[in-house]
Structures are given as structure tokens and as C-alpha cells.
Amino acid sequence: MESWLFTATAVAIPAILAITLHEAAHGWAAWKLGDDTAKVLGRVTFNPLRHIDPFGTVILPALMYFTTGFVFGWAKPVPVNFNRLNNPRMDMVKVAIAGPAINFVLALVSAWLWGFLPADGLGGGGPTVGTWAKAALEVSVFVNVILMVFNLIPLPPLDGGRVAVGLLPDALAVPLARMERVGLLLLIGVLFLLPMLAREFGYDLNLLGWILGPPVDAVIEVIRVLTGND
Length: 230
Known about the structure:
The chain is mainly alpha-helical. It has one domain (2-227). It contains nine helices and no strands. Helices cover 70% and strands 0% of the residues. It has helices spanning 2-32, 37-40, 54-68, 88-114, 127-151, 159-167, 170-177, 180-200, 207-227. Helix 1 (2-32) runs antiparallel to helix 4, helix 1 packs across helix 5 (127-151) and helix 5 (127-151) crosses helix 9 (207-227). The longest helix is centred in the N-terminal third of the chain and has 31 residues, at 2-32. It is globular, with a radius of gyration of 19 Å. It is a multi-pass membrane protein. One of its GO terms (biological process) is proteolysis. Its main location: membrane. Its cofactor is Zn(2+).
């Protein structure tokens, strides 16, 4: 029971923070750029409880971590009225990039703190506290980098899709923007359901690992260099 609780909290707490602060960053950026919709609704806060979706933030990420080793989830979306932004098209890009940016900062800070902790033992708390802290910080780096890279896939409604819509010429941006309604379903189908179906026929179709693996490894290496961790 203690071992399970150790693992569950070391995974759940960093994952919940990563997912909810990602949404909070969108709301904060929108507020600073002219749209106070999220602010009025109390969503411009770094209190994770204001952003938690019980299934998408807690249950699904936990199930995926313990069954696949990959973490995927979502918080309650922060409402943004892009028409109220000072410069709707370019400010949309800034609001979108705020989410992945906060994930990178969280990963960087987690790696930096990890370097200060001993392998076990943390003051008077004993080895368990130190081991838990190291484990939680390692998960924080891993989860935040995965969320950052995944959300930068250039397909709406992911952040990378909205960045692409804001930067591409209209001839490309308009048809891409129209994919917003089906984009998430397409991603789930291609990255999760298709590989599951392929495994039933004996094929290893790890599209998620092939797509995310190299950039995730590259970002983690950059963080390792920046924080001086071996």
C-alpha cells in the first residue's frame, strides 16, 4: 500500500500541475492581451483545483501512465474570446504558445531542483521523503516535456495548430482552422486507436513514440545541459 501510494502521488501531483498550469497560462496570456473572459470566470489562477477535469486531469493520465507509460490528459479548457484580443491573429499565437511555454519552464525548474537533492534522505524526513521528491521531479520533467511537444503538433485544436493558423497565409490557414472540430478525434484515432488495433493483428505501430520520441529526447537533453545534470 505504501509503495502504491508513493508511486501514485509522485506521478499524480506533477501531472495535475503540468496539465492545469498549462491551461492557467492560456488564460493569463489572454487577459494580458485584452480578453478578460477567463479572468472574470476565475480561471486566471495557478490554483490547480480551478482547472481540474476529474476524468481528463486525474483518471485518464493515471490509467495511461500505469498501463502504457505515456501520459495524456486535459484540464477544463480556459475560455478565450479571440475577437477581444488586441491583435486577434497574432495574439492568438501568443495565447496558444503560453501553454507549452509554461510546461517548458516547469520542466526546467524541476530538473534544476532535482540537481540539488540527494539520492535519498532530505533533512529530518528520512530516505522516503528524498526518494519521493527525486521521483516526483523526474516525473515532472518527463510529463511537462511530453505535454509541451504533444501540444505543439500543428493540428487544431492543439496549441501548435493555432500557432500554425496564426502564422500561415490564409490559403493554408483557413482549411487548417476548419479541422478544429475533428482534429482531436483524428489524433486520438491515429495515435491511440490505430496502434491498439494493429497490436491485435501482431503489428507494432507505435506512431506516438515515433512522432514524439525524438523531439522529447531532444528537449530533455537541452534541459539536462541547461541545468548541468548528468
